[in-house]
Design goal:
Shape: elongated
Distance between the termini: 57 Å
Largest sheet: 6 strands, mixed
Helix content: under 10%
Strand content: 25-35%
Mean pLDDT: 90
Strand order of the largest sheet: 1-32-33-34-31-2
Number of helices: 5
Number of domains: 3
Number of strands: 34
Length: 657
C-alpha cells in the first residue's frame, strides 16, 4: 500500500530590519559599561565613493546635453502609470487618468480629480521651461548661427553662408579661407575673447594683405615672413599658415568676398565670373518654430527653437547677362546653413565669443570639436569632477531635425520632394569630408543622423567657367593624401546640393532642379535646423565634490537609454558608496527592553560623532547613532560569595535608510 501523501504549509512572518519599535519609542543607550567598534567584525568602514559616473547606451547621449535630457524627461512623464481604483498611493506618487497627469498631495486611495490630487503639466513636474529646453544650440540662437556664416557684421555683403568649396587644391588652383584680412594683429576685436587684443584663440586666421605690423612686423618663429601671407594663431604664437604665390585665392569670411593675389598684391575679385562661388547671401536668418509640439503651458517647446535660413531668388532672372556668374542674385540659388567653433566664433550681434562652446576666457579653449571628447568640456573644464562632466564621451556623429520649405511668391508649396543635401566638415588643416543625405518631403520635419563613419574625403574642383572649357574637363579624380583630423573640426556647412554639379562645384544650370523645377517668379526656400547636437554614449555623473574626491570605476549600463534613469542610478549608487558600515558591540546592565531587529540609539560622547534621527543622518542629538540590534547575548555570572552580574551584550549595526 502506498503511503498516504501529506501536504505541509509553512507560514512566514517577516518584518523590515529596524522597523520596530515605532518612531518615538526607540530605546537610547547611554549607560553602557563598554563600547567598541567591533574591529574584528567590521567596525567603521571608509567611504568608497564620492563621485560616481555611469555610461549608458551608445548613441543615446547628446552634446549639448539638452537634447538627451529633454527626451528623457518627456519619456518619464509620458510613462506615468494609469491610476488603479482602490489602491492606496503614497504622497508624491504620480499617475495619469483620462489623459491628465496627477500627483498625490497626501497618502490616498481616492480617485483623481479630488482634493488629494493636483494636476500636473510636463513643465510642472520636470522643471523645464521654454527658455531652458531641448535645443540649447538653436533655441533663440539665430545670432550665434549668423556669426558662424559670412559677413557676420552684415555691413559688407550682408549676412550669408559659405559652402563646401571654401578650400580648393586643384592642380595649380589654390584657395583657402581666413576670418579677416588686416596688416596688423590689432584687427577687429569682435574676433577676440573679451574684446581685447590679447584674446586671440587657436585657429584664428588673418590674411596679411600687405606689409605686416605689430605681431606681423617680423618673421614668425619658423623664420617665415607674414607679409602678404596667411597667418594663423597656434595657441601661443602667430605663425605663417601658408606662404602664398600669385594666383592664390583666399575667401575672407568676415567680408563674404574672395581675394586673389596678383603681382604680390591681394585684390577683391568677388565680382568676376564664378569667383565668389563659395559665398551666398541670405534674405534673412532668424528663429522660427521647431519640430517639438509639446505644450509648455504658454505655447510649445518648439516655439522659436529652430534657426531659419530664408533664401529668395528668381531663377531665370539670375541667368540674364548682367547677373550671370557674378551677381549676388546668382549665388542665392540654393539653401545653406553654417556652424563653426568656438561657437559663436565672434561677438557680433548679441553674442559673446564662445558662449555656448569654448567660453573659457583663460584657456580660450576648446576652439575646435574633438570627437574623442574626453579632454575638455564645453567650458574647458577637465575631468569628471565638474558640473559639465556629462559633456564627455566619444562622439559618434551629427544629429539634427531639419525642414526644407520651397514656395513660390504667393506662398504655394512647390510639389517637390527628396531634396538632395550635403553636410561638409572642415578641420584646422583644410582637410574636408562630406556626407550626402536626403530630406524626403517639402515642408515636413525630418530627423537626420550622420555618423562620422559615413563621411568621406573631398577635394573641391576649380570653379566652373563658361569661357574656360579646359578647366571644365577632368581626366581623373584628384588624389587625396591628407587624413582628416577628427580632433580639430573647425567648420560645418549644410547645403542643398542640387545647385552643384557632379564635381561638387556651384553650378545651378538651367538643367538643375534648383532652376528647372523652380516656380515661375520668385522662389523662397526656408531651411530650418532644430535640435542640433553631436551624438555620443549616455553619461551620468553625480554633482561635483568640493572636499575629498573618491572616484570608483565607472559603472556600465549599456541598455539604459534614458538620461533621467541613468542619473537616478548614479545618485542611488552614491548613497551606497558613501554609506559607512558602522558596527558597535555594546555591553549594558541586564535589561530586556530591546528585541532582535529593533532600532535603538546609542549615545557616547567619546567615540561617536554622529547626530542621527529615525529617518536621517543629521538633525538629532549630538554623539548619537541609530543602530539595529543584530545579536543580543545575556550573561549571568556568580562569584564565591554567591552574588554576580547580569549583563547584556548587543551587536548594533547602522542601517542604510
Amino acid at each position: 500500500m502506498r503511503p498516504r501523501s501529506k501536504r505541509f504549509k509553512i507560514n512566514f512572518k517577516s518584518f523590515a530590519s529596524g522597523s520596530q519599535p515605532s518612531s518615538g519609542s526607540e530605546v537610547t543607550i547611554s549607560d553602557s559599561t563598554a563600547v567598541n567598534e567591533s574591529p574584528t567584525e567590521g567596525g567603521i568602514d571608509s567611504i568608497t565613493g564620492s563621485l560616481i559616473k555611469a555610461w549608458g547606451k551608445k548613441g543615446m547621449g547628446t552634446f549639448p546635453n539638452s537634447v538627451q535630457d529633454f527626451a528623457g524627461q518627456l519619456e518619464a512623464f509620458l510613462l506615468d502609470p494609469t491610476h488603479i481604483s482602490g489602491v492606496t498611493y503614497p504622497q508624491g506618487a504620480r499617475v495619469q487618468l483620462n489623459g491628465i497627469h496627477y500627483e498625490a498631495t497626501t497618502s490616498t486611495s481616492s480617485t483623481p480629480p479630488s482634493g488629494d490630487w493636483t494636476s500636473k503639466l510636463f513643465k510642472d513636474i520636470q522643471g523645464v521651461t521654454s527658455a531652458d529646453q531641448y535645443s540649447l544650440w538653436t533655441n533663440q540662437k539665430a545670432d550665434e548661427w549668423i556669426s558662424s556664416g559670412s559677413d557676420p557684421s552684415g555691413l559688407i555683403k550682408g549676412h550669408g553662408c559659405w559652402d563646401s568649396n571654401l578650400v580648393i587644391e586643384d592642380n595649380t588652383y589654390h584657395q583657402t579661407w581666413v576670418h579677416v584680412k588686416s596688416t596688423t594683429d590689432a584687427f577687429d576685436v569682435n574676433y577676440k575673447y573679451g574684446g581685447v587684443s590679447t584674446g586671440v584663440y587657436r585657429g584664428l586666421r588673418c590674411l596679411v594683405n600687405g606689409t605686416g605690423t605689430g605681431a606681423f612686423s617680423s618673421n614668425d618663429k619658423h623664420g617665415k615672413s607674414f607679409d602678404n601671407n596667411i597667418a594663423e594663431y597656434d595657441g601661443s604664437d602667430w605663425i605663417v599658415k601658408y606662404e602664398t604665390v600669385d594666383l592664390w585665392r583666399c575667401a575672407i569670411i568676415d567680408e563674404g568676398r574672395v581675394y586673389e593675389k596678383s603681382s604680390g598684391v591681394w585684390s577683391d575679385v568677388s565680382s568676376e565670373s564664378q569667383a565668389n562661388h563659395c559665398f551666398h547671401k541670405a534674405k534673412s536668418i532668424s528663429n522660427g518654430s521647431g519640430y517639438n509640439s509639446t505644450l509648455d503651458g504658454v505655447g510649445t517647446y518648439g516655439d522659436n527653437s529652430a534657426v531659419e535660413y530664408e533664401w529668395e531668388y528668381t531663377a531665370f532672372e539670375s541667368f540674364t547677362p548682367n547677373v550671370l556668374f557674378t551677381s549676388d542674385d546668382y549665388y542665392k540659388i540654393g539653401a545653406w546653413a553654417n556652424i563653426s567653433f568656438p561657437f559663436p566664433e565672434n561677438s557680433y550681434k548679441s553674442n559673446t565669443l564662445g558662449e555656448l562652446y569654448g567660453n573659457n576666457t583663460t584657456k580660450k579653449e576648446p576652439a575646435t570639436i574633438d570627437v574623442n571628447n574626453m579632454h575638455l568640456t564645453h567650458s574647458g573644464n577637465v575631468g569628471f569632477n565638474n558640473s559639465e562632466a556629462e559633456d564627455l564621451g566619444n562622439m559618434t556623429g551629427v544629429q539634427f531635425w531639419t525642414k526644407f520649405q520651397w514656395t513660390d511668391l504667393a506662398g504655394a508649396l512647390n510639389l517637390e520632394g527628396d531634396f538632395k543635401m550635403r553636410c561638409t566638415l572642415y578641420d584646422t588643416s583644410d582637410n574636408v569630408v562630406i556626407q550626402d543625405f536626403v530630406i524626403p518631403f517639402n515642408n515636413l520635419w525630418a530627423q537626420i543622423n550622420l555618423p562620422f563613419s559615413g563621411f568621406s574625403p573631398y577635394r573641391a574642383r576649380i570653379p566652373w567657367s563658361l569661357g574656360d572649357i579646359a578647366s571644365n574637363i577632368f581626366v581623373k579624380d584628384l588624389e587625396i593624401l591628407n587624413v582628416f583630423q577628427w580632433k580639430n573640426i573647425k567648420r560645418m556647412s549644410i547645403q542643398w546640393h542640387e545647385s552643384y554639379d557632379e564635381h561638387g562645384r556651384f553650378n545651378p544650370t538651367l538643367g538643375s532642379r534648383s532652376v528647372s523645377a523652380s516656380p515661375i517668379g520668385t522662389s523662397t526656400i526656408i531651411l530650418s535646423i532644430d535640435g542640433f547636437c553631436f551624438t555620443k554614449p549616455l553619461l551620468a555623473v553625480t554633482s561635483p565634490n568640493t572636499s575629498r574626491v573618491i572616484e570608483p570605476p565607472s559603472m556600465q549600463f549599456p541598455d539604459v537609454s534614458n538620461s533621467i534613469q541613468l542619473s537616478q542610478i548614479v545618485n542611488s549608487q552614491k548613497e551606497i558608496e558613501q554609506f559607512q558600515h558602522k558596527e558597535y558591540t555594546i555591553t549594558t546592565p541586564g535589561q530586556i527592553n530591546i528585541n532582535y531587529g529593533d532600532t535603538f540609539f546609542l549615545n557616547d560622547s567619546i567615540i561617536i560623532d554622529d547626530s542621527d534621527t529615525r529617518t536621517a543622518d543629521s538633525g538629532g542629538s549630538a554623539n548619537t547613532i541609530r543602530l539595529v540590534a543584530k545579536r543580543i547575548i545575556y550573561k549571568i555570572s556568580k562569584n564565591s560569595n554567591g552574588a554576580g552580574n547580569f549583563l547584556r551584550t548587543i551587536l548594533g549595526i547602522k542601517r542604510i535608510i
